[in-house]
Structure formats: C-alpha cells, structure tokens
Design brief:
Distance between the termini of chain A: 46 Å
Number of domains of chain A: 3
CATH class of the largest domain in chain A: Alpha Beta
Number of helices of chain A: 16
Oligomer: homodimer
Strand order of the largest sheet of chain A: 2-1-3-8-7-6
Shape of chain A: globular
CATH architecture of the largest domain in chain A: 3-Layer(aba) Sandwich
Largest sheet of chain A: 6 strands, mixed
Helix content of chain A: 40-55%
Largest interface: A-B, 73 and 76 residues
C-alpha cells in the first residue's frame, strides 16, 4: 500500500509552522508497512486542493489530508471533499452531541459556527474527535482509501492512533510484510561508547535495521524488524532486544513511550518509597517531571527550590559555614542538600541538584555546565559531578535527566560508574 | 513570483526527520515577497524526481530542490538534473579547491567520493558551500529559476541567506511587494471573545491579513502586511498594532519571540522586586519557567512545592484547621499559600497555585481542571479560580500560564477581570 499525505494551511507555506504532522503520520504508517511516497503541503486554496485530490487518486492507494477543518477558517477541505466526491453536507447528530458536550464541559456556549462543524460529507464514515470539535472522515472509493483529519496535532494524533492505524491494519491483514519498530531508551552513555559496547552490529541485527538517535536526554536506539509473519517479526525483535540488553542493559531505562519519570514513578510505587527534592540550578524541573505522572502524590512529598544560599541554610538545615567553605555549587553541598531535604521532609529518599546553568555565573574554577547531583537514603548519601554544555535550557534538561537516572539506578541497585 | 519547494530524502518519508528546511526556506522567500505555493517531499527516487521537475517547470517561476546531494547517498539529484537539462557533469576546480581545503582544515584525507562532489552539471552557476562539501547550483531556463541545495540544514541555510536571497532580490527588483509579519501574543482571553473585541476586522486590517492561532498558552494573532515599499509596510503594521492594542492591549503580553516568563522577568527586574512561589498542582512548572530566564537569581528567591498538606502547614505556616475547613484546593488556601510563602521567604511578592490536574483526584464538588492561583504583596492578597480541561499536562501548562499572567497584570496594575 502506497500513501500520499496532503497538508493544508497557509501557515505552512509562509514558513510559520513546521510540518510535524507529516512526519508523525509517516512514522505511524511506516511502522505498519505502508509506504509513504509523497508529502505535499498547499495553502488554503480550493482549486489546488481539488487538483491534488485528482492527481493522488490516479496513483495512490491511501490519501490522508490534514488541516482546513477549523471553524474560523474557510472550511475548504470539507467543501473540496463535497465537490470531489459529488456529494453534500449533512448534519451528523453524534458529532453534534460530541461538540455540544465538548463546550458544555468547558462552560462555554456553542455558537452557530461550532454547530456547522457537525455538518459532514454524506459519504464514508465519520472519525470522531475526542480532543476537539472538527470530525474526520474515512472514505473508500475505487479501491482507494481517502481520509481527512484536522490539522491540530493534538487532535489529529489521537485520531491516527485510535482509529486510522487500527483500521488500516485490518485492511492490510496478510498483504504486507509485518514490520515492528522498537525504541530502546538510554541515558548516561555517549553514542560512541554505546556503539562500541554493541560490537558487530551486522551480527547482532541479522538484517534488521538500527538507528542511534541522540539528544540532550540520551541516545534512543530505534530497531526495525521486517519479516513475513507477525510471529517471526516479534520473535526476531525479542532476540535482538535481549542481546542488546545483555550488552548495554544498565543504560536502558525504558522503551517506546516510556519517560524516565514514568519509569522512576513505577519503581517508587512498587517499593512504597517516598521522595523529597531540593533543587537549585534546575529551578523546579526535576519536581515538575516527577509530578507529570498521575498519582505522583503517593511518592512525591515536597520540594524546595532553594535558589538563594539563605534558603538552603534555612530550609535544608545546612551549616552556613559549609556552604561558605565549599561554595553552593559543590559535591559537598549537593550531598548536604539531599540529606537535608530527606530529613526535613521525613521521606525515604532525598534528591538534590546544584550547578551553574549559564550563560552567566561561571567562576575560574567552576565553568558553565558544572552540575552536582546528590542522593541520600537511610543507608547511604552520595553525590556526583557532571559537566554539560553552554545552553541554559539544555543544561536544565540534562541535569534533570541525570538526577532522575541516578534515582533510577539507586532504586535498582545499578552502580552509576561505567 | 510563485515558488515550488522539493525536499528529497527517504528519512522524511519514514517520519524520522521533520522537514524544517521547507519552513525555513518558505519564511525567507515570504519575507521578500515570493509566494510559496507548494512544498513536496519525495524519497531518493530518480523517476519521481524527474516527474516532479517536469510538473514544476510547467507552472512555477522558482523551483528549489533540497537534498539528495550527499556523498553517501545515491547522488540522485545531480543525476536527475543532468538528465532533465540534457547536460553532463564537469569537474569544477573552484569547488574541488573548497572541498580539499575543507578536509585539510579538519586534518582529514580527501576520498574519491569526496572529489566526485566537485563534479557539477555543465549548466548554470555553482553555489559554493562554505559549511560542507556539496555545492549547490542556480540554473535559469525558459523564464524559470531552478536551484538545487544540499539537505543538511546548517549548510543549506547559509547558502539561502548569503546567495539565494540576495540574488532573488536582484531579480525581483521593483516587481514585488514588501512583506512584514508580526505576532501579538495574548493569554487569558478565549479566541471568540478576542475576535469580538476587535470588531470589524476588514476595517481594522485594510487589506492586511490576520490569523488567530490558539493553543493551551493563549491565542497568537499573526498579522501580515504587504505594501509596495518597506516604509509603507512598516507604517501600516504600526497602525494596525496600535489599533489592536487599543482594543485588546491588556491581554497582549508580548510579541514575536517573547515568552510570558521573559516578559515577567523584565518587569520584576525593572521594578527591583523579588518573588517566592508556592506550588502544589503545578509541581514546579511555574518555578521552572521563571528560572529558564538567565539572571533569574536576582528576582527569584525560593519556592516550595508543597504537594502534601503537611508541607503546606509546616513550611507556609498555614493554619491546619483552615486547610481542613476549606480543603487544600480552595480560594482561601491559594491565598494563604501566597501570603505564607511571601512571609517565610521575605520577598516582595508571593505567588501560589493549588488545583486538581487529573486524571484522578476529583471530588463531587471539585472536578479535574479546577485550579486556584493566589498572589500577595505587602498591600494586597487575592486569589482567582480557573476551570481547565481533562489533560494533566495541558492543565499544568495552563495553570502555570495563568499564574504568570496574574503576576504580569499585577506588576502592570492591569485588573484581571474582563
């Protein structure tokens, strides 16, 4: 099955919006063995849209159109669909119900233009939108599948994952190689060292594909296996994953949609442990990530963002002389902060970060990017030094990731040293 | 002048790479009055490329192709150009010199495949690449301009800015309008009410264009003015902006690249005021945003993330009976938290957030999305209620935005009420 993606919107053509929809949909289609051959973006222009519909119908099995469905836009996608398929708009009561309850929940009035969004082409099947007001549509004609979705990524992504992909898998059943992609997520190891650890990749992969995708949070290994049956694909993926875990398992904190905070949350929950955090340089980011997980109140007790030395001394009960002696950015103070926040909060674990995020604040001894992470429980109390880069926001990301990884390894009893 | 952008590369079609090249080039072309009508991405496939060349030559004045020029790719763009223009490849000694010195500088050997990159189509003008090894090409034929550039953003961007744009401006001289785009950033006002406030848009804009772009942080108004001279464009933009500010100025916190935290940081700095934050439901996000700004230690004193009631009572010195009486998520406790954190920290301002972010934690009286923001200084102490949606992460974003906006209006003396 080959596919054509059409993105509609002037904001794409003036360069204001980067087209992340095309890459999102392409990745999802590739994973189920659909071959995306063309991604095209055009403006809010009915003639061009109709021309693209005609061209696409000549050649592609699957056509997905995103955008042009909003209430304040000229509703050109719906109009164009009606013209192209020679049909008419009809009121869909299910969709009208969705829209009405969407606004009621938010305590807002449904305007006539909102109601108009429940008018759908009288052909194909409606794709309901649980995150917004514009419905999508799935049309099958002349052995082609034509899908229209809203352009808002948050809405479109949900409709792709919960409706489009499952329905396409059903259509494809047996007519394609089974393709499986797994992402193994690592942190705390540079790409080159990870690469060396894995040894001979051809032997490891036996025809499967692998990409190393680094960013400030770590290196993602994307493995793609394609075999003739679903079982063969699954088996091969399991084998490869096991081999990789034998070689570099300690650096792998999760896979696919896992986040380091979700992994740590699960570990804390399983062990019934509580945590308190003392943040200086990270300014709340570690706590923000820990509390992004639903149910975090069962393990996250409290945090102090002690930006000033006074706050460190006052709330974390750190001896002022020691802060003066070692400096606020030091191994010793990181350890004292972790120990202090644990004691003050009465939690099982204390986690702390102090450092220089830049661009200002460096001294001859202490450059921008220098960060110390401390961790203590009832049995141990330690801290580690990190040297990151020049970018303030990247440094905050990296420091928060290092802190959560130190916590993960602590919970699993994996030493942090290489 | 209308334009067609063709991006070449399998990595785009499997969704591995987001096409930032298309938005970059589109923005630059829009700024000089070139009308980008189509952005297309295809894989490394010669037949498809030749077909796209033919289609583009039928209709567009300007065709820009990026990608397919690397030494490790099948060099399909160069091959396709040679076929399409019926020419041949010749060694270009200037380019060969560039490539040789590029590798010498890095202490690396020039391989035969690197040398092959100095082979260029024997037509048009070479665009030299100061940041890499693949040259570009500028071809004029049949009143069309055809440009090929490497796909590596860092290399392509430099060639666009230093060669393509200046040369296009020369070609366009006098034949195009000057175009200017400004984004006005609002928060705390729904799109529909903002729209109503602005009244008759046709009268307001007098031919300029405006788009309303909402997300969880607020509504962005994008205004695009196009007039015959640069002065006329600037004057008209200034007029429109002034009119909009008269009608809805209190909701506009900044423009273009401003963030709410950068605006608030500037206001706090100018006034020499310090702030402390007490966060419950936002879990550190407000503090994280305030400390994303370099130099934040001059105004950001400390923060408490008091997830548990015990922490609220202990650190913010809130009467436990009042927490019991009103509940931790209440107008009263938000106010007490803001007042408490100000007193404990000795700052000029205290800011606080408490709420239910979901998906769990709702009670019959207090639904998911209910948030209270408190703010106090030496003269006043108040709190406001908000009702957001169902998504935990969006609710955190919205609550942090509401808190920073309340702070901004407080600093400027703008009442929060509509």
């Amino acid at each position: 099955m080959n596919a054509y993606l059409l993105s509609v919107g002037d904001e794409l053509l003036i360069g204001q919006t980067v087209n992340t929809n095309a890459s999102f949909i392409s990745e999802k289609l590739t994973q189920i063995g659909v071959n995306v051959e063309n991604q095209t973006s055009i403006g809010d222009n009915e003639n061009q849209m109709l021309q693209k519909f005609r061209e696409a119908f000549d050649y592609y099995d699957l056509i997905i159109v995103t955008g042009g469905l909003g209430p304040t836009h000229d509703d050109i996608t719906k109009k164009s669909i009606v013209k192209f398929f020679d049909t008419e708009l009809v009121m869909n009561n299910e969709v009208l119900g969705d829209i009405t309850s969407f606004f009621q929940k938010r305590g807002r009035v449904v305007t006539p233009s909102n109601k108009d969004q429940a008018l759908v082409p009288n052909i194909g099947e409606v794709i309901r939108n649980s995150r917004g007001t514009a419905p999508g549509i799935w049309i099958e004609k002349d052995d082609r599948i034509f899908i229209s979705l809203p352009g808002v990524p948050f809405e479109m992504e949900n409709m792709i994952e919960s409706f489009v992909i499952p329905n396409l898998i059903e259509k494809l059943d047996g007519n394609t190689n089974s393709i499986l992609t797994t992402n193994l997520l690592t942190t705390g190891i540079p790409e080159s060292i990870l690469f060396e650890r894995l040894g001979n990749l051809d032997e490891l992969l036996e025809g499967a594909k692998m990409a190393f995708l680094p960013n400030q949070f770590g290196v993602r290994m994307r493995i793609t296996v394609s075999e003739s049956t679903r079982e063969a694909t699954k088996d091969k993926m399991t084998q490869i994953e096991q081999k990789i875990r034998t070689l570099a398992g300690r650096y792998i904190y999760g896979k696919n949609d896992d986040t380091l905070e979700s992994v740590v949350a699960k570990l804390l929950g399983e062990r019934g442990l509580t945590i308190a955090v003392a943040e200086s340089c990270t300014g709340g980011l570690i706590s923000n990530r820990l509390t992004n997980i639903s149910g975090s109140s069962s393990y996250f007790e409290r945090a102090f963002i002690t930006y000033s030395n006074g706050a460190k001394v006052e709330h974390l009960k750190i001896d002022e002389d020691l802060v003066q002696k070692y400096g606020a950015v030091s191994l010793e103070v990181a350890r004292l902060m972790a120990d202090g926040v644990k004691a003050v909060s009465g939690t099982d674990i204390g986690l702390a970060a102090t450092g220089i995020m830049g661009p200002t604040g460096a001294t001859p001894d202490k450059p921008v990017g220098l960060v110390y992470i401390g961790i203590c429980d009832e049995k141990m109390c330690t801290a580690r030094e990190f040297r990151f880069g020049d970018s303030r926001l990247m440094n905050k990301d990296r420091a928060s990731q290092a802190a959560l990884e130190i916590l993960r390894r602590h919970l699993l009893g994996i030493p942090y040293e290489e």
